[in-house]
Amino acid sequence: MNEDRKGETKLRASRGQKARIGLYALIIALLLLAIVLSLALQAEPIRCENRLSEKLPIPVPTELNDGKGVLTLVMLDVGQGDSLLLISPSGKTMLIDAGEEEAFSAVDSALAAYGIRRIDAVVATHPHADHIGGMADVLRDYSVGTFYMTDFSATTPTYKRMLRMLRKNGCAVYRTDAETEIAWDDAVSVEVLNPIPEQVYEDANNASIVLKVTYGDVSLLLTGDAEAKTEMLLVGAYGAEKLKADVLKLGHHGSRSSSCAAFLNAVGAKYALASLGKDNDYGHPHESVLNRLAARGMTLYRTDESGCVAVFTDGTRVCVVP
Ligand SMILES: [Zn+2]
Fold first, then answer.
1. Are 135 and 98 in contact (CB under 8 A)?
2. In this predicted structure, what is the pLDDT of residue 162?
3. Which regions of the chain are under pLDDT 70?
4. How far is residue 140's CA from residue 222's CA, in Å, rounded to a whole number?
5. What is the largest CA-CA distance in the chain?
6. How far does the centroid of ligand 1 lie from the alpha carbon of residue 74, in Å?
7. Ligand 1 centroid distance, CA of 128 (Å)
8. Domain ranges, ordered by start, for the chain
9. Exposed/middle/buried for 287, CB within 10 Å: 0-12, 13-18, 19+?
């Protein structure tokens, strides 16, 4: 082989090497990209945690999304407090409580995420600030159809501000009790089970509006801050047949003063919901409540762990999306 040929062969060899190195580099780069992408996809889903609505609206699970109407309940993450948003199969809206005053921005952004400007029905279960704190601002900023509250009043600035804003809003106001059925959507029954007329309530929690929402074969029982005293009153007044529900929003944020054994037995729910702040000062939910739920095979969904939680039902099946 002459010198020229040798040189040519060397040149070809080094070009071949370079091409191989380039190929290896490309493969390594692609592998690294694949690893980064798979790690990104495995990342924790965004949680609401007092900012609430990053993951809203929660999409209807595909197994329910077969064209039949779906009733949606969203337990908003308002920290230590309660705020529930109900959307009927035909799109009617109901807001039950509005958390503390500071939680209004969370309620507001949740309503915005669902494209809601008008709320057909608003319910103030009882006059404590962790339930009606955000209500004055809701009444200031939203068109409201009908407002439901009880005769159990308060003298707090929060309550007085809510009353002022009720007058300014101009919505219809009903002082409601257990003789009322809330007319909201023809396909959904919303019964008021508490307060019971003629019954004397010594505290606001036990005078909470308790709602039974029924769509098809599925019922949701929403209890405000009702405690064992009222739970026993309901068991006595209605019995298990009437209280039976698939989903129970636990009274008083999972406090040990609520969710007594007899009431849980009567309701017989499979799913429990609790709205509470992370590391709250009250020790909610109480261990004894967790034990009572576990003993009955109930699954608990809580805002301090999951952020907003959605319940979907087509009237037959129930899906809870934490
Ligand atoms: Zn409360």
1. yes
2. 98
3. 1-19, 21, 31-54, 66-67
4. 25
5. 116
6. 17
7. 7
8. 1-43, 53-321
9. exposed
What is the Å distance from ligand 1's center to 4 Cα? 91
Q: What is the pLDDT of residue 34?
A: 60
Q: What is the dihedral of CA 276, 278, 279, 282, to 10 degrees?
A: -10
- The pLDDT of residue 49: 40
**What's the pLDDT at 126?**
98
CATH of domain 53-321: 3.60.15.10
As a whole number of angstroms, the distance between CA 211 and CA 184 comes to 13
Give 313's contacts (C-beta < 8 A, 6+ positions apart): 64, 70, 71, 215, 216, 218, 220, 246, 319
Q: Residue 263's closest CA among 299, 223, 312?
A: 223
Please give the distance, rounded to the nearest whole angstrom, from the Cα atom of residue 158 to the centre of ligand 1: 14
Side chain identity, residue 138: V
Distance (angstroms) between ligand 1 centre and the Cα of 81 equals 5
Q: Which residue has the tokens 């070009």?
A: 15
Q: What is the pLDDT of residue 63?
A: 84
At residue 81, the pLDDT reads 96
Tell me the CA–centroid distance for residue 20 and ligand 1, in Å.
68
